[in-house]
Amino acid sequence: xxxxxxxxxxxxxxxxxxxxxxxxxxxxxxxxxxxxxxxxxxxxxxxxxxxxxxxxxxxxxxxxxxxxxxxxxxxxxxxxxxxxxxxxxxxxxxxxxxxxxxxxxxxxxxxxxxxxxxxxxxxxxxxxxxxxxxxxxxxxxxxx
Length: 144
Hints:
By secondary structure, the chain is of the alpha+beta class. It has helices at 15-20, 25-42, 95-101, 121-138; strands spanning 46-49, 53-56, 58-62, 68-71, 74-78, 83-87, 105-106, 110-113, 140-142. It is globular and about 45 Å long. A hairpin with a 3-residue loop joins strand 1 and strand 2. Helix 2 crosses helix 4 and helix 3 (95-101) packs antiparallel against helix 4 (121-138). It has one domain (15-137): Alpha-Beta Complex (Aspartate Aminotransferase, domain 1). The strands form two sheets. A six-stranded antiparallel β-sheet has the order 1-2-5-6-8-7.
């Protein structure tokens, strides 16, 4: 088995530095709002990961192949095209909550939102809480 190096790892950049560098004023305001929301809901210290992702907590995974590593539990990224919100784990049926969330697109473990006014932040809090609780009961987790 080859040892692949995980590319998404924590950096020394602070969340405030990352958000301060966001060019679009509305995206920057939304990122500040998400930073406060994630800080409150998770109770965890945010860290910036490679790729401009503000991640919270950490969980350890081991695949059937034997590959293992650590990754953030939840987080977001203020990207140019849309706000990316990482609700882990993927592959869970979250359709009931997602139906109530509002206007968004989704990937396996990620939501794409154009602006926060398009979604219900209370439902987003439910999604974040669900993801954190799931990871804490199925994986080894840590606050940083």
